[in-house]
Amino acid sequence: MTGTPPDADLGRALGEFSGLRPRLFGIAYRMLGTVADAEDIVQDVWVKWQSYRDRDSVRDPTAFLVTMTTRLAINATRTAHVRRETYLGPWLPEPVDTGADPSLGAERAAALETAVLVVLEKLTPTERAAFVLREAFDYPYTKIADVLEVKEATARKLVSRARQAVASERHAPVDNTQQRRLLEAFLEAARAGDLDDLETLFATEVASYSDGGSKAVRASRIPVVGRTRVARYVAAFASHFWTGVTLDWVEANGRASVLISRDGAAVAWVTVGAADSEHIDRVYWVLNPDKLGRLAEAVGRTEDSAAQ
To answer: Of 47, 97, 242, 291, which one's alpha carbon is 20 to 30 angstroms from that of 219?
Structure first.
């Protein structure tokens, strides 16, 4: 009897896949913006890989698995976009804990910040894929072209258009220390309902986005825009929203953020984006409970580890 024993062959396939799993998840999450959808893609890739009859002919398993993941994610992104057209209120990506893996399996922690993912949602699936592969995973244009089955010149144009879209809707990011300081100041003013302090913190064209789906009555179904309007909006619910809550700081999507809980259950997640070192230009609230569970579990595991 010759050849590789079936168990050994499957073990090798599992080893190749497991080593790449963080990268595959990182691609799928950046494309889809939700953990469950990204995990479904990764699981689908594993099922196809373990049952692939011609694995011995695959000279570059990494390229093969990345290509499979990206193409499945492109198809899933098209389906997700149709679903989100009927989503009640603003749609925001599900926050993910990046404390343990700041780059989420990538070469660099790019295309993870909430503000960037919101912009990527407006791109075509192929533009989004090209941007993710280039910016987060540092793929050369030749490989991006192979993955997307386009010419290299087309791959360059896809990345360029995506970069322009991101740059047009996003200020130059401040560093993490400045962003956390702004978030701390925002939370202090928001909990006090201090209208003047909130207005001082906000940029002129600040916008507040609240993702509640159909499951959070407090979520605004349209973005609130403008310094005075956002300040009044935040101050208006200060007296009841912050009563009896606990705040857990967590690094989510590469930025400081806060998970807000009441009676042991997560009720909201909030973070801010900055126009400059002194002003907030975006406030993001996730109140949809379907998008809070995994982050709450991650926070709980961190607290348990710290207590041991």
So the answer is: 97
Kindly state the DSSP code that residue 97 receives in the 8-state scheme: B
Q: Report the pLDDT value the prediction gives residue 2, as an integer from 0 to 100.
A: 45
Is the pLDDT higher at 82 or at 163? Answer: 163
pLDDT in tens, 272-283: 999 899 999 999
Mean residue pLDDT across the chain = 92
- C-alpha to C-alpha distances, 264 to 93, 122, 260, nearest whole angstrom: 23, 35, 10
User: HSE on the CB side for 27, CA within 13 Å?
Assistant: 31
**β pairing state of 255-262 and 224-225:** unpaired
Cα angle for residues 108, 109, 113 (degrees, 5° grid): 155
Beta-sheet strand order (sheet of 255-262): 224-225, 202-211, 280-286, 265-274, 255-262, 245-252
Q: Is 142 exposed, middle or buried (0-12, 13-18, 19+ CB in 10 A)?
A: exposed
Q: 147 Cβ partners below 8 Å, 6+ apart?
A: 66, 67, 70, 71, 129, 133, 139
- 72 pairs with which residues across the strands? none
